[in-house]
Amino acid sequence: MAETDFKSVDEYIASQPKAVQGVRERVRNIIRKTVPVADEVISYKIPAYKLPGGAVIYFAGWKKHYSLYPATDHVVAALKDDLVPYEVRKGTIRFPLSQPVPAKLIERITRLRAKEVAEVEKVKAVAPKKR
Length: 131
Fold this sequence. Notes:
By secondary structure, the protein is an alpha+beta fold. The chain has helices spanning 9-14, 18-34, 73-78, 80-83, 103-126, and strands at 39-43, 46-51, 54-61, 65-69, 87-89, 92-96.
């Protein structure tokens, strides 16, 4: 992945090797379908999807895999059986390019993360304001 400041997710995907652009676009479409109200932005030089409570999910493409971030403890615990075939570490889930895109799993990860972000937003809304 080139060290570039992308202006959009379209630009990010277009910068990827032609052979994997379709995979990146599929992951993007799954996330957008799952959280259609999320803002699609570039953050930390990779695609990110944000709700008012914070970032729901990021994805990045690498030479032999693509990754979703953050893989929180809650997400990993809730989906541990489904995540067995994938490398999970340090808040990252790696999906090999050599396997089909696990659309339902990515949807479930995104849904769980959106729920986590909504919970954080709820807590912020009821917390006393600091002066």
